[in-house]
């Protein structure tokens, strides 16, 4: 991480805005770094969707928009184009943001798709790959209707 990302990460993790990172905040940072180091970001996000959602919701609006995602997605090796794919699949309200319910559906579908993909072909390394796989599976199911 460069200085810009380190400072942004510090600001995101300084939940009480006191200029310091306490133990819980430090623990979250270590978990994020370890998940990234070991390519298990999708598992971390799926198992900790609420704190991840709150972390990505940088303005406290109870939604994650493209600007927030572009600014913070680096924590989980995601890009803005990945978020657009995620929005296309999970933005039920059509507001071009993910609320907590939509984000939770995204994480649950990722877990299901990842399990199915592992069963069929092997491990996925990125959340967007899971979403792409899930979208293709959905398209195939609609073709069968």
TrEMBL record:
Q: Which GO terms describe its cellular component?
A: cytoplasm; sperm principal piece
Q: Which PROSITE patterns match?
A: EF_HAND_2 (PS50222)
Fetch the SMART domains from UniProt: EFh
Question: In Gene Ontology terms, what is a biological process of this protein?
Answer: flagellated sperm motility
- What stretches pass through the bilayer? none
Q: Its Gene Ontology molecular function terms?
A: calcium ion binding; calcium ion sensor activity
Q: Which Gene3D superfamilies match?
A: EF-hand
What sequence ranges are listed for the domain EF-hand?
A: 1-36
Identify this protein by name: EF-hand domain-containing protein
